[in-house]
Amino acid sequence: MMVIQTMKPGIVSTFTGLQIIVSLILVTALISGCTNKPVTDTSFSIKSTFASIDSCDYLTGECFVVWWDKRYDYSTQAADVISTMSDIRKECIEIYKMSDPPNVLDGYYYNIYLHNDSDMYNHHGWGAGQGTDTNAYPFETIPIKYATLVDDLLHHEGFHIYQYMANSPGFRYEGDSQWYIEATANWYAALKNTEEKTNYVTASAVTAIPYVPLWYSWENMEAGDKDNWQRGCHQYGMNVFLNYLTDARGIDEEILVQGFYDSTDQLPQEYLYHQLGGSNMSNLYADWAIHATAGFDYLSPGTAERSEKDLVRYGDSTDVHRIVHTFDNMGTGGNWYRPDSIHVTRNWGYNVYKIINRGTATYTFHLNGDRKGRQGTTAVFRARIVSIGRDGRTYYSLDMSGPQDGKITINADSSESEIYFVVAATPEKFSGNEKFSYRIKIDQDG
Question: Which strand (E) or helix (H) includes residue 75?
Answer without folding.
Answer: helix 75-94
